[in-house]
Amino acid sequence: MSLPRARLERVEAWGMSTWSTSYVFRPVDKQGILEAIDEAGRTGLKIALKGGGNSYGDAFQSPEGVVIDLSRMTRILSYDRQTGVIRCEPGVTIEALWEHVIGDGWWPPVVSGTSKVTLGGALAANIHGKNNFHAGPIGEHVRSFRLLKVDGTSVECNQDDDLFYAVIGGFGLLGVITEIELQLKRIHSGKLRVEAFASGNWDETIRIFAEQENHDYLVAWIDGFAQGQCAGRGLIHAADYLDEGEDPHPEETLSVRAQELPDTAMGWIPKSKMHSLMSPFVSRFGMRFTNALKFRSAKKEHGKVILQRFAEFNFLLDSVPNWKFAYKPGALIQYQAFIPKENAQITLADITEYARDRKHPPFLAVMKRHRPDKFLLSHAVDGYSLALDFPVGRRNREDLWALTAELDRLVLAAGGRFYFAKDSTMRQTTADAYLGEAVQRFMDIKRQLDPENLLQTSLSRRIFGDL
Amino acid sequence: MERYPWQKAIVVGATGGIGAEIARNLKAHGCDVAIVGRDQTKLDSLTAGLALGADRSFAYDVLDFQNTQDAFDAIVQKLGGLDLLVFSAGLLPPVGETEYDIEKDRATIDTNLTAGMAWCNAAAKRFERAKAGCIIGIGSPSGDRGRRGNPAYGASKAGFENYLESLRNRLGRHNVSVVTAKPGPVRTPMTARFGALPGMIEADVAAAEVLRKSTRFSRTFYVPGKWWLASKIVQAIPSRIFRRMKI
User: Fold this and answer.
1) Among all residues of chain B, which has the CA nearest to that of A64?
2) Could you read off the pLDDT of A61-81 as tens digits, one per residue?
3) What does each C-alpha distance from B88 to A59, A181, A429 come to in angstroms?
4) Interchain contact, A8 vs B132, CB within 8 Å
5) Beta carbons of B18 and B41 less than 8 angstroms apart
6) Smallest Cα distance from A45 to chain B, Å
């Protein structure tokens, strides 16, 4: 056995909570992917697929195995300016995509909180945006994709195929998506109309969400430190596309230049250094202070309507590059639970309160509205999700994992679901509980496409066991 | 019990003395340990004693330098990664006052130094890529001065310690720690023929201290720490006096 030793690299979860060493291949075309698969077959190594590497946990990890990093396959294969249909390779990022199309009045129909994800990764995770309750996940806007199976053959899948609903959201366990055809969203301005609502507690937060469901986008920041009467307080943003004619000069904002995020803060602090300035605040005390401060400013923002650029509104996580480094020398994990609307208020309140009582207050809490979809390993429900960021250190790690196991029980009892792209802690029993027979159906498809189980990740072994 | 920062470890020279106790200690702290030794029978009994799986025990002669890299890779594959390499294989053959036997000396140097370099080189390459990891090498106060008793042993330890220092200086910038642990007299099969020596400690005590200190430092230390002072004094003795002494 001679391993491709020169390719050995550290592959770290986005949240830095786990890492492993793998033999990393970075193909630029289908031929390169096949070579990597051959190499893995020859040496008996397992393969994980990696896109932008923005999954919080171990979705793209293959300890001592092969990682095929597809982020160098960045060609745009075809693009129709009239119809907004674009066909890309999997390494094209959301950022590259919107920059390519915005000048023609198009926008990706679904985007994540960071624009650094690749389209291949976006399909593998079936990402959602702040418009999930209207637009669904990105998979619903995919016209078709080309799947390269591990045996070297390719197949084109569209919305009429069962395979379509298994591969999207299938976390790269069925094959390699090599081409993606997406229907873009027509926009008539580079700005969104954004309305802000401050809420004082869970009652108000849920009420505002319910009242504002007619908006295209809804997202809330929740103060995870607030207790008692104030628990669930936060700031809700509702945003809408502008209709044709509402923006008298759309050409002014429909350009990369107009959308560009500033590279300095307050005009003089380089953004690339910002994370080190944030670092002192990444502590329980500092975060309590920061959250409280944010709520004070939220109250001032209440009721205001502003026009905000798409990039600014959507890609909040990009506003400070590498902000995760502020958690160093520790790391962070995110715990995102999706709760059906009937049980949402009680369960969301329980989760945050329980975490706080267990001395793990979430440093950041974000709430969104969702609706179900037809994908096999779906994370969506007709309800709400709450994403909690927890710092991980050497000392609190085991306790935090134990806490999330307990939170899992609360979520499952409420009929909730989870999202593998964010997950670092879920156990097999939890996945079985909410996915039910979907796991078996997924495995049946996997056995056909990948009979030797070449495609395996740390995530897949954690939640599905040894395949 | 406080957990070590390592999850997956290889102990080379695990069939006797300090190595066996280090393996035992790591296992007790919840680490996934692979043991490497020459003697299959001893390996088997240690495997049984530690309740290790058969796939965690590797019979390998450390003198087989050619295949060390492959053996190392195979073990790491089995473990699914590596955080810690302990090299504790050691040879201390009895050498007469007037004996100058190159075969014997060479075996000592090969086991204590060349084999150590072969294993640590393999680990160093990997840890540099991983930007993490720890290498523990077992040195000896014998490496501090050229003593009358066993020229090759002292030379091998001095060489190994110098090598480890180079590794430390190479790998420190990559967040890899390299530890040189220098135990004083420890009751092990290797030292059994000397009987009770002054200040002698048990192997499990030595192993625990080596590991505990390795979680905190990336440097050379004595085990127990008091030998640092003793060693400094010995080092300060002028050569003209040292050569007349019996140590």
Assistant:
1) B80
2) 999 999 999 999 999 999 999
3) 37, 58, 42
4) no
5) no
6) 9
